């Protein structure tokens, strides 16, 4: 039998502490270092970050943390991290200074380019570090807003000799791929001996060794679980009540432990904790002002501090993010509204209008046009900063608070468009359905049709999207010719992907599109070129397609990459293909354009395959697959097929090709069948199976797939001459 032997401490972390100490030595010596700690909730990442901050003997520490309610507010985490350094803002070049000021809401202007914001943050760090070493700490990266993550990744990859450390922590599995490609350190459970010692320090009394060992095994050495699960439980409960909870996720069980401790506190203390949990920045004066509105005095903090659930010093810090979620789950809806209302009343409408609007929105019980209008203005500001997801969230909540059916429908439609632009495709249909409940004018109805078809195509590149896209284009012809051309181009693109399985879809789309007046915008140029290619053949289309490729230079037109890539292949224009692949990938990563990123990753991987960089291509395809699983976006398997074929491993390549063909035939994606045939020919030629290569190449060139048939002809010639 064992008894409590002392208080908890940072135990069993020699390897991690040595890594952090080494990092600090390098920074003091004038170098820059980057490190991402990854581990499950409660593994000790935050404790290691505290250890790091406490051991910065000479230098400055600035900290921020991702907070789930702010995960869609663009640049919110980055602004928190950089706020103590903004006195150096005037030392930056003008364009960088203006971009950062706009991103942080300190000034107005056009949406800032992510490159300028990234360079500005890099310069800000360098200026601060010129006075003394700088250690930047970011916790809970899995909840950091997308634009902050993009900029932090950009900066991390460019730090060199500035005496800057950037150390972040991400919870797995949610943050497994956040800040990908940076140096990382896995933070796993404690070794068994250290785990038992930590558990002994908090056990309430004698506990059988077998029970103790079972707790250690079930928690897998997770420090927070070891500290929190036994609290409030008697030895009898530990011995006989622990087992039935085994099926619950560890995070849920730890959170339930926090909920029990919160429930035991006085009512005013619970309300104080809830206010601190809802207020995401940790602003102490703001917290006290809100509590004053709620009629709660400073003494209410005592029991929560004594319980180790909160620290109130220069900033408010909850013991762990699970305390925040436990507070919110424990609260009644009326209590949450009351807290949001108090925070809205004490938030400066000039300095922080978006947080104020968000608090007001969550304090509202029913429709409120004043709050909805404020949210709509917040959405505009979010779009100006490049925050598509934030804008969608503001607009969605604005629609919910709108009573007038026409305005409600317009806001729901605007939210749907913002969700689509952000790559959150699965959320678009419900918003479109909400928009259709209200009175829509003809243009809005055409936009709904088009957007629904675009979502269908983005999620499944088979035949299904083609007819709805043509129907939407016809509706738009008189209402918005430019939008009609874009819809017809999408319809032709869908038919190109349907290919040999399209049953005449391509000719029908091209015939309809030919009746439209030609457009000089990039989409209009591609529409003209592909219409001519579809109806008149390759040679007449060449000048039009070349002009379209030459016109695609702006980042804003990179959404056409999914068609521009095959066109570049068709034209044998490798220079443009490589340029577009690199440009699109850089833009998608820099701006968080998730709807573009899977295609950009696949196209860039294709260029790497042909350059013989198979390992690099495989890494990009892995990133694309993970992104597709997270977002539901379709990840074209074209590059994976070609990579497998060029690697020449017959069994895995053949299995991938066969599975792809089955799936493509089921969905009606004939062009992918053509790519699979080309891959079969490449694989078979490489293995010396020339009859099989010839048969595959002949099947492929039997239909003129855009950007495929020409490549397959090369394999056909090789197979015919060698076989």
Automatic annotation (TrEMBL):
Alphabetical list of InterPro entries matching this protein? AAA_16 (IPR041664), P-loop_NTPase (IPR027417)
Q: Which residues form the Orc1-like AAA ATPase domain?
A: 10-166
Q: Keywords assigned by UniProt?
A: ATP-binding, Nucleotide-binding
- What are its GO cellular component terms? cytoplasm
Gene Ontology MF terms: adenylate cyclase activity; ATP binding
This chain belongs to the protein called AAA ATPase-like protein
Q: Which organism is it from?
A: Pseudonocardia hierapolitana
List the lineage, top down.
Answer: Bacteria, Bacillati, Actinomycetota, Actinomycetes, Pseudonocardiales
């Amino acid at each position: 039998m064992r008894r409590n032997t002392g208080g908890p401490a940072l135990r069993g972390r020699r390897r991690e502490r040595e890594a952090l100490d080494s990092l600090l030595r390098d920074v003091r010596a004038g170098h820059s270092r980057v490190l991402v700690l990854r581990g499950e909730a409660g593994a000790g990442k935050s404790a290691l970050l505290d250890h790091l901050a406490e051991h910065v003997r000479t230098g400055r520490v600035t900290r921020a943390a991702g907070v789930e309610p702010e995960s869609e507010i663009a640049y919110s985490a980055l602004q928190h991290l950089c706020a103590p350094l903004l006195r150096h803002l005037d030392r930056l070049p003008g364009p960088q200074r203006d971009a950062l000021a706009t991103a942080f809401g300190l000034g107005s202007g056009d949406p800032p380019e992510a490159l300028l914001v990234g360079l500005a943050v890099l310069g800000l760090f360098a200026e601060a570090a010129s006075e003394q070493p700088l250690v930047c700490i970011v916790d809970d990266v899995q909840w950091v807003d997308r634009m902050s993550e993009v900029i932090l990744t950009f900066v991390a990859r460019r730090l060199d000799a500035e005496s800057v450390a950037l150390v972040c922590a991400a919870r797995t599995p949610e943050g497994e791929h956040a800040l990908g490609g940076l140096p990382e350190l896995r933070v796993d459970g404690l070794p068994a001996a250290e785990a038992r010692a930590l558990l002994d320090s908090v056990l309430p009394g004698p506990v059988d060794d077998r029970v103790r060992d079972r707790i250690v095994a079930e928690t897998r050495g997770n420090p927070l679980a070891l500290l929190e699960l036994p609290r409030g439980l008697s030895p009898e409960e530990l011995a006989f009540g622990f087992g039935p909870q085994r099926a619950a996720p560890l995070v849920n069980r730890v959170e339930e432990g926090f909920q029990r401790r919160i429930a035991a506190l006085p009512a005013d203390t619970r309300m104080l904790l809830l206010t601190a949990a809802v207020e995401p920045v940790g602003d102490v004066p703001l917290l006290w002002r809100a509590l004053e509105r709620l009629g709660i005095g400073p003494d209410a903090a005592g029991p929560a501090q004594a319980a180790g659930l909160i620290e109130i010093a220069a900033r408010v810090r909850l013991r762990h993010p699970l305390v925040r979620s436990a507070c919110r789950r424990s609260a009644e809806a009326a209590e949450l509204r009351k807290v949001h209302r108090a925070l809205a009343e004490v938030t400066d409408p000039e300095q922080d209008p978006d947080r104020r609007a968000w608090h007001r929105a969550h304090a509202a019980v029913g429709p409120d046009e004043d709050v909805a209008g404020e949210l709509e203005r917040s959405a505009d500001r979010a779009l100006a900063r490049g925050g598509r997801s934030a804008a969608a969230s503001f607009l969605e909540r604005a629609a919910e608070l709108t009573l007038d059916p026409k305005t409600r429908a317009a806001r729901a439609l605007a939210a749907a468009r913002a969700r689509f632009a952000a790559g959150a495709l699965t959320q678009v249909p419900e918003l479109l359905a909400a928009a259709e409940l209200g009175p829509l004018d003809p243009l809005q109805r055409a936009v709904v049709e088009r957007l629904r078809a675009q979502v269908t195509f983005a999620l499944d590149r088979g035949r299904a999207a083609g007819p709805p896209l043509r129907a939407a284009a016809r509706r738009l012809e008189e209402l918005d010719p430019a939008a009609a051309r874009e819809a017809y181009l999408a319809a032709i693109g869908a038919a190109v992907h349907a290919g040999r399985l399209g049953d005449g879809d391509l000719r029908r789309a091209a015939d309809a599109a030919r009746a439209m007046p030609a457009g000089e915008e990039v989409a209009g140029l591609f529409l003209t070129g592909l219409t001519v290619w579809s109806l008149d053949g390759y040679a007449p289309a060449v000048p039009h397609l070349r002009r379209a490729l030459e016109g695609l230079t702006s980042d804003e037109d990179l959404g056409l990459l999914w068609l521009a890539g095959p066109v570049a292949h068709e034209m044998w224009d490798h220079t443009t293909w490589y340029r577009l692949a690199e440009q699109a990938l850089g833009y998608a990563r820099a701006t968080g354009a998730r709807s573009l990123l899977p295609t950009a990753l696949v196209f860039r991987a294709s260029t790497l395959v042909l350059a013989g960089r198979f390992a690099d291509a495989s890494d990009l395809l892995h990133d694309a697959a993970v992104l597709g699983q997270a977002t539901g976006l379709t990840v074209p398997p074209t590059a994976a097929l070609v990579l497998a074929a060029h690697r020449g491993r017959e069994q895995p390549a053949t299995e991938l090709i066969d599975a792809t063909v089955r799936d493509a035939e089921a969905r009606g994606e004939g062009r992918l069948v053509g790519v699979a045939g080309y891959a079969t020919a490449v694989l078979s030629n490489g293995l010396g199976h020339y009859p099989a290569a010839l048969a595959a190449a002949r099947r492929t060139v039997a239909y003129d797939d855009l950007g495929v048939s020409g490549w397959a002809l090369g394999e056909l010639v090789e197979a015919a001459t060698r076989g």
